[in-house]
Amino acid sequence: MTDPAPAPAEAARDRVPRRAARVAVLDPDGAVFLLRYDNPEVGRHWAMPGGGLEGDETPREGAVREAREETGWTDVEPGPLLCTWEHDFTRGDVPVRQHEHIYVAHAPHRPLSGDLVAAHRADGILDGRWWTPAELVATDEALWPPQLPALLAELRAHGPADPAPDLGYVPNGPRRTAG
């Protein structure tokens, strides 16, 4: 018989805290740009541009920097906060509990800009694409956060929530392998 998974608080003791920020970049038709990762611990998943904060960087500052580094777009300005959440994964060989701020930004529908091969290789980014709202709802691909389709639907229907929802700790779903 296998041991049950540790409780979130117990699992957090074994993980390094990491602060991060992401940007839900939306085109004029409501499609969102996502990047594909294949992490050894959690498998294949799609997430918005973003990542760990540096030094005393604020979440908004980190979101701007990360979006620029991962997309090449220099005009992405984060607007309202979409949500916050925490999740676990292993970055390099370090197990982390990541606390993320996710902001909303609007930009034209366009391809990535510039030479991003080295940056994507360093961050484990395998692909990037625009997802329509219908594609998000219909996919069986893992999304970070998993509530992303509902969060964006609520944003389209009612505008930004004030205050933005805190999703709390969200455990990882079933691992999906590359394919």
Automatic annotation (TrEMBL):
Its cofactor is Mg(2+). Keywords: Hydrolase, Magnesium. Residues 16-152 form the Nudix hydrolase domain. GO terms for molecular function: hydrolase activity. SUPFAM superfamilies: Nudix. The keyword Kinase does not apply. It comes from the Bacteria. Gene3D superfamilies: Nucleoside Triphosphate Pyrophosphohydrolase. Belongs to the Nudix hydrolase family. This is ADP-ribose pyrophosphatase YjhB, NUDIX family. It comes from Actinacidiphila alni.
